[in-house]
Write a structure and sequence with these properties.
single chain, globular, 4-stranded antiparallel beta sheet, mainly beta
């Protein structure tokens, strides 16, 4: 069974870079046809897909965040990372990592607050 665990700072100052890591166990980032995603939920709003990195290493991002977002991976550690640059308070949210292999697998989520 795939397990995902987010890690990273809970507080980021405006204009800085938010960086989160998802550690994967029970599955490999290079397993064929797996896509590894970052999704967030701002307070009082619904889930928002941010982007994904595929088993091949290719990436895809929501257009509204594309210029500020990078998703990368370290296959030796079985981790993938989100970087969101130039954050504002509107980026405050619970951030989740996710994959789907028949079943949806989610990390527990991590609260990130953007505030000075």
């Amino acid at each position: 069974q795939v397990q995902l665990q987010e890690s990273g700072p809970g507080l980021v100052k405006p204009s800085q870079t938010l960086s989160l890591t998802c550690t994967v166990s029970g599955g490999s980032l290079t397993n064929n046809y797996y896509y590894w995603s970052w999704i967030r939920q701002p307070p009082g709003k619904g889930l928002e897909w941010i982007g994904s990195i595929a088993y091949s290493g290719s990436t895809d991002y929501i257009p509204s965040l594309k210029t500020r977002t990078s998703i990368s991976r370290d296959t030796s550690k079985n981790q993938f990372t989100l970087q969101l640059r130039s954050v504002t308070p509107e980026d405050t949210a619970v951030y989740y990592c996710h994959t789907k292999a028949g079943t949806d697998y989610w990390g527990q989520g991590t609260q990130v607050t953007v505030s000075s």
